[in-house]
Amino acid sequence: MCGIVGAVAQRNIVPVLIEGLRRLEYRGYDSCGVAIVTAAGPQRMRSVARVAELEDQVREARFEGVTGIAHTRWATHGAPTVNNAHPIFSRDALAIVHNGIIENYESLRETLRGKGYEFVSQTDTEVIAHLIHSLYQGDLFAAVREAVQQLAGAYAIGVVHKDQPHTVVGARAGSPLVVGHGEGGNFIASDALAIAGSAKSISYLEEGDVCEVTLEGVRIVDRAGNPAERVARDVQAYSGAVELGPYRHYMQKEIFEQPRAISDTIPADAAFDPVQFGDTAAEVFRGIDSILILACGTSYYAGLTAKYWLESVAKIRTEVEIASEYRYRESVPNPRALVVTISQSGETADTLAALKHAQSLGMEQTLAVCNVATSAMVRLTSLRFLTHAGREIGVASTKAFTTQLVGLFILAVTLGKLRGHVSAQQEDAYLKALRHLPAALNGVLALEPQIIAWSQEFARKENALFLGRGLHYPIALEGALKLKEISYIHAEAYPAGELKHGPLALVTEAMPVVTVAPNDALLEKLKSNMQEVRARGGELYVFADADTHIASEEGIHVIRMPEHYGLLSPILHVVPLQLLAYHTACTRGTDVDKPRNLAKSVTVE
Ligand code: G6P
């Protein structure tokens, strides 16, 4: 998704801006650009290639300045061309970078056309540029404040004007923006990572805030125009680019980091004590009668898995809903429900909006399962469970997913204990199983060579079907999502019992059918579903447990998981599916870490 960096300093800030863009690259983008302020007007360089290419352009042109803004763009309105890349200008006087979507851009454009403004890009951003320009009367801060009142939708912006060569103005609503305080310079950015090191401390802007960043300092006002104090927090120095080590891609590295990530996520002691979720958790947990989980993408599938655990272990009614659906639907609010949001980034626009929607409906008990301690989501909820996956660079989530599952399992057992459904003996067994997970995962990762062999077959296919039952249906969904995200093979997942109600019509020799087949209560039923596939000539690729009696034969390929893992089995079974998608994508030669059209952190609707 789009990323913003802006800086005012006493030195040339272009290297800081480019470095900031480089650190935002992981979010996904399709073009980038940088502008500096000069007395003659803003000057810019833009590229539809990588930030490294923009850096070459900048170096060759000796592009330098003390005040500037920069951007990575993930196209929403208008194709990813140089002309649509930000910074966007208004009449060679003003430049703007923007993250978000302006919903009323069409009516604003008509009004501005009426005032003689010409539009040269297809972006919604250009209306903000002209709107601010039309309101400018010598004070950029005032013009931006007036302009944002007319905007509907989501935005974070950075703006410069030729007549104020040492000022950057920022504003946010719906998209994140931080201001950074440094020595000899001040900054704005989409996240702290982009400016860590240059900025010693950062403040998070709140909804509706407008800020003015100059050499002297930072001024912030809230939506109503009142001066606002936003706490400044120290930022840790940037720890450097995450090294790839012996791996070909970040995704592969992150798959192999899962034993470490999981072990870091399991609390060292008192794992099932409510205090893991916050000081007031015990009281909150005692008062709730159900759970509503809200999330997007892979995090949503973690929620679907958690439903099985919460209902079977904690005996608490659980609903799981896609955040973008929940936020716009009329629902029946339950003030006694615990709203659980799941998010790797903690910045996903739809999940944040769904959370705020639930809060606005009177659901005050909220808990975030999140990988970023400083994210908007963690700041918005009263309780939280932090996963310790470490930075995830690959757009397709892997280690964040399995650590979310660990957090959600801990939540289920904690609630189960509190509600009297988990005996001391069971608790002990769950803890042992959790603690043994990293070792068990290492055993699963050792299956990689066998999965590489399968991936050669998959790379030649255009469609694939994934089947699972019960706890492993969400894992089948996640396996299909991984395959389509990075290898661009069309993949769908079904609960195996639904096979006869539609997907069986698709099964021919050309359709590989991946089956997640742990040795659980549903195995016999699953075996019947597999026979239905074989009878139609479908080729089965089965992930079975060590003790599952399914043998390889013509049309049935079996990989055995090293151990049977009971309730926690989804955490193991998803790993070979991640590896299958990864190696299939490598064979097809796709850009695994940055799949086309996708972004790591979806900060627009
Ligand atoms: C994007 C990413 C996915 C992720 C989803 C939700 O689509 O590409 O990997 O699962 O957003 O993101 P979140 O940060 O809220 O977990």
UniProtKB/TrEMBL annotation:
Q: Which UniProt keywords apply?
A: Aminotransferase, Cytoplasm, Glutamine amidotransferase, Repeat, Transferase
Q: Which reaction does it catalyse?
A: D-fructose 6-phosphate + L-glutamine = D-glucosamine 6-phosphate + L-glutamate
Q: Which Pfam families match?
A: GATase_6, SIS
GO process annotations (BP)? amino sugar biosynthetic process; carbohydrate metabolic process; fructose 6-phosphate metabolic process; protein N-linked glycosylation; UDP-N-acetylglucosamine metabolic process
Residue span(s) of domain Glutamine amidotransferase type-2 = 2-216
Query: Which InterPro entries does UniProt cross-reference here?
Result: GATase_2_dom, GFAT, GFAT_N, GlmS/AgaS_SIS, GlmS/FrlB_SIS, Ntn_hydrolases_N, SIS_dom, SIS_dom_sf
One molecular function GO term is: carbohydrate derivative binding
Q: What is its EC number?
A: 2.6.1.16
User: Quick one: a GO cellular component term?
Assistant: cytosol
Locations listed in the record: Cytoplasm
Q: Where is the active site?
A: C2, K600
HAMAP family linked to this entry: GlmS
Q: What does this protein do?
A: Catalyzes the first step in hexosamine metabolism, converting fructose-6P into glucosamine-6P using glutamine as a nitrogen source.
Subunit and partners:
Homodimer.
Any idea what this protein is called?
Glutamine--fructose-6-phosphate aminotransferase [isomerizing]
What species was this sequence derived from? Answer: Paraburkholderia caffeinitolerans
